[in-house]
Specification:
Structural class: alpha+beta
Mean pLDDT: 82
Shape: elongated
Largest sheet: 5 strands, antiparallel
CATH class: Mainly Alpha
Number of strands: 5
Number of helices: 4
CATH topology: Butyryl-CoA Dehydrogenase, subunit A, domain 3
Distance between the termini: 41 Å
Helix content: 40-55%
Radius of gyration: 28 Å
CATH architecture: Up-down Bundle
Strand order of the largest sheet: 4-3-2-1-5
Strand content: 5-15%
Order of helices and strands: HEEEEHHEH
Number of domains: 1
Low-confidence stretches: 190-198
Length: about 220
């Protein structure tokens, strides 16, 4: 019963992480303007994401524009698009696999195969966390390097946006949820793998008494 609760908890964390990845993928706040000039009053704020960039005016108006060319985008943006979309699809596969093999469902009869399916779902969640971590760290490294690079003009410097932090939180949820699913499934399989030994029944002899070797 406890392992089933841990499995449901891991599945819930994995779903939250998957939703977080989709949210981070769609948000245009992977990089935001860095206000490092002496003049604090600025007319606009620039947001840059995987699919579009937005300009937010001081009056509250926001204008967004989808990138025109895919091939003209930087390598980190193209890789971020590909990996986040792959993670979104793999997260759906992990959800279906885990639900099929979960202890609270009857899609498959209990046994080793059911445990292996759940472990496969947890492994896919862990893989999703590792894959989505690549573009997040890549973007963060570029932002930090450009920020401290004296050759980059102040108007081109950027800071890490909210989408990166959401992505890191989603990564932690995916990794932790996948580990919980795998651990509880492995422990359940180990507990159910002990062989059951049966002793042969004692047979009476011809005179109606039990054989003496049954008492040795």
């Amino acid at each position: 019963m406890a392992s089933a609760a841990v499995e449901i908890l891991g599945l819930g964390l994995g779903i939250l992480g998957w939703v977080g990845v989709i949210l981070a993928c769609g948000l245009p706040m992977w990089q935001v303007s860095a206000f490092i000039d002496v003049n604090i009053v600025v007319a606009q704020t620039i947001w840059e994401g995987l699919w579009m960039n937005c300009v937010v005016q001081s009056t509250g108006q926001m204008q967004c524009k989808v990138y025109d060319s895919i091939l003209a985008l930087p390598a980190e943006v193209q890789a971020g698009r590909a990996l986040t979309v792959i993670v979104a699809l793999l997260g759906l596969v992990a959800l279906m696999v885990t639900v099929v093999g979960a202890q609270c469902t009857n899609c498959i009869r209990p046994g080793k195969m059911k445990s292996r399916i759940v472990i496969a779902g947890g492994a896919i969640y862990i893989l999703c966390g590792v894959l989505v971590l690549v573009p997040l760290c890549w973007f963060a490294n570029i932002v930090i390097s450009d920020f401290y690079d004296p050759t980059v003009p102040p108007s081109k410097k950027r800071e890490m946006g909210a989408a990166l932090y959401i992505g890191w939180a989603a990564t932690a949820l995916l990794l932790f949820g996948g580990c919980l699913i795998c651990c509880c499934s492995c422990s359940q399989r180990d507990e159910s793998s002990f062989p059951v030994k049966y002793s042969a029944p004692r047979r009476p002899t011809s005179n109606g008494d039990y054989d003496k070797k049954n008492y040795v």
